[in-house]
């Protein structure tokens, strides 16, 4: 495409190195430049309006013009725009937010460690695993097991936990000490005739075998998203986490819940851990924590973990980990206001009232000839496009069919996301109204027909 010299698109191509983008394709295709937002809608620089059917990157839960959050940020900026938490310093927003997070957490957590992103949260998890096991005199117990198609971020350690080839290839990852076990996608990986329960039993057995093969004295933790997001919205099969938890307990392996997407009502409960019966030792959360208005994320740890690392920090001299912006007061103030708004507006009841309509429209797409599976929970879902429905044959990555479908949806006024060769994902802001859910699915139906 030829863009006018000095147009915003030409300047973008000339200057911006885009994350998660085929960079050569971008040079031809150029950017969709979003210039404003209101409610569930965003506008591009040509004046076209879209429903943001992905809440940005699974995060803008309260939509695009939440004055309360803007005011919270401005107020805090005026009062104390920056302070930190190193060497016994603190500021009020991080104290208030830590207390609030603990009060709504899905487990009895003892302390909250603030970071700026999901990736930093999961890097922190890796460091906690190491620090804790050194502290308790088990220096050989350090390995962490992630899952194929799990997504935990892109920093060196977090990308290693991630089980997606694109995040490893050419980056020389994963790092040492990370293993990956099965992806719990029943549609794709179950044996013929295998029920969800049987599939879960087999996966838990495979996990146990992996732990035994590695040596249980070397395996420290298992990390899982309650619902795999960036792997294509993969909802765990019946009984999965119950069986996995039993294996983890048997071998004294931590359950790290990565609730970066599922935290704060996405699956129809406050936490994905509640929806799927997960009992985490530690938890990462981000994204909807601040409705994405400012970057902030958190790691919560249980008391045995805290006590061990506190002792170690005493003997070493300090817990030598932290970011300049850990507990940034403006981000923390916005996050606290976000959590208050969820309560004041009873967002949980709203999500529970509207997600049946979302899931009904989603599941109805399974009848479309291109759709192999329509899957989801709460207000998140995906359709998997297949080249051949009876055999579930996948499209080749180079076919770009999911990307094409997403482009058609965009032409019909809805922004969705393509993942891999075949998945089209949907994850709207939580404050979406039922009528707007229908608009999303009307557009997606048309897009599927266009793709046909
Ligand atoms: N963990 C999960 C489950 C995620 O979905 C993501 C991002 O999508 C991350 C971690 C990484 O978060 P961030 O992009 O904020 O580093």
TrEMBL record:
The entry's keywords: Aminotransferase, Pyridoxal phosphate, Transferase
GO function term, MF aspect, one: transaminase activity
A Pfam family of this chain: Aminotran_3
Regions crossing the membrane: none
Organism superkingdom: Bacteria
InterPro entries noted in UniProt: Aminotrans_3 (IPR005814), PyrdxlP-dep_Trfase (IPR015424), PyrdxlP-dep_Trfase_major (IPR015421), PyrdxlP-dep_Trfase_small (IPR015422)
Gene3D superfamilies, per the entry: Aspartate Aminotransferase, domain 1, Type I PLP-dependent aspartate aminotransferase-like (Major domain)
Family statement drawn from the similarity comment of this UniProt entry: Belongs to the class-III pyridoxal-phosphate-dependent aminotransferase family.
Protein name in UniProt: Aspartate aminotransferase family protein
Lineage: Bacteria, Pseudomonadati, Pseudomonadota, Alphaproteobacteria, Rhodospirillales
